[in-house]
């Protein structure tokens, strides 16, 4: 692959930032494909007329963004894009990932029936203290933990889910295909939090690392709330995407 340096006209932007931005553009637009070798440090030095330190700063930033990875003695290569799920479509995790060619599985941490607290009762439109089933699962993508999903459903549904293969099947698919509960829409709230020790252990990250938290309340087609959950997601190996149209 050859690289033609653009003329550096942004005097207020450092040279390494401009090199980084041009290389990033080649990666995200597909000019450089996954596992293509990035031009070597020496090649970039000659093409841009800059020092090795400048080139290493540019490549270092791209590595931090997970756009490239290094192989000792061989150079830098373009990373495979992060797997992603479209937030604009109501899909289960496995359903979305299998469509992109990824393998998924779940590790069931717990499944228990308990009394609904005020928050869960309000979300599922139940009296406080009504029996609900809480299901906690770690979702894996190509053997890497991606998220911890904590789900609450009415106990009458939870009793049936306890007999299902929750290691390989999405709850959404079970609700629709097996229980005849067509899903209609979901309400989402997204924020971030620091991982406590149990969450960090489940996701394989350092304690106090930042994780993405998605609160999702899914309704059936007739508008009844059926599935309330919190999704705690690692930001380093997975993405959520959303397309917005201007009104």
Distance between the termini: 42 Å
For the report, how would you describe the main beta sheet?
Answer: 6 strands, antiparallel
Strand order of the largest sheet: 4-5-6-9-8-7
**Mean pLDDT, rounded to whole units?**
90
Please estimate the helix content.
25-40%
Radius of gyration: 23 Å
Number of helices: 8
Task: Report on the architecture of this protein.
This protein is of the alpha+beta class and 247 residues long. It has 2 domains: 15-78, Orthogonal Bundle (Arc Repressor Mutant, subunit A), CATH 1.10.10.10; 84-241, 3-Layer(aba) Sandwich (Chorismate lyase), CATH 3.40.1410.10. Helices cover 28% and strands 32% of the residues. It contains 8 helices and 10 strands. It has a 6-stranded antiparallel β-sheet with strand order 4-5-6-9-8-7. A two-stranded antiparallel ribbon has the order 1-2. A hairpin with a 3-residue loop joins strand 1 (68-71) and strand 2 (75-78). Helix 1 crosses helix 3 (52-64) and helix 2 packs across helix 3. The longest helix has 14 residues, at 15-28. The radius of gyration is 23 Å and the shape is elongated. Mean pLDDT is 90; it is low at 1-9.
């Amino acid at each position: 692959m050859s690289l033609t340096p653009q003329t550096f006209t942004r005097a207020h932007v450092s040279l390494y930032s401009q090199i980084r931005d041009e290389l990033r553009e080649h990666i995200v637009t597909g000019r450089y494909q996954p596992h293509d070798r990035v031009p070597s440090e020496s090649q970039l030095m000659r093409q841009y007329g800059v020092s090795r330190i400048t080139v290493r700063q540019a490549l270092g930033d791209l590595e931090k963004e997970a756009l490239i990875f290094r192989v000792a003695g061989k150079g830098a290569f373009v990373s495979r894009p992060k797997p992603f799920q479209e937030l604009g479509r109501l899909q289960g995790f496995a359903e979305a990932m299998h469509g992109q060619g990824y393998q998924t599985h779940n590790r069931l941490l717990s499944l228990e029936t308990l009394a609904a607290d005020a928050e869960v009762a309000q979300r599922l439109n139940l009296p406080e203290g009504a029996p609900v089933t809480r299901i906690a699962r770690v979702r894996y993508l190509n053997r890497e933990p991606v998220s911890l999903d904590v789900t609450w459903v009415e106990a009458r549904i939870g009793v049936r889910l306890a007999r299902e293969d929750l290691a390989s099947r999405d709850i959404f698919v079970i609700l629709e295909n097996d229980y005849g509960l067509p899903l209609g829409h979901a309400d989402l709230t997204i924020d971030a939090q620091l991982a406590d020790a149990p969450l960090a252990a489940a996701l394989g990250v350092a304690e106090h690392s930042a994780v993405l938290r998605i609160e999702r309340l899914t309704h059936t087609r007739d508008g009844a709330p059926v599935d309330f959950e919190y999704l705690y997601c690692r930001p380093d190996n997975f993405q959520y995407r959303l397309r917005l149209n201007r009104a």
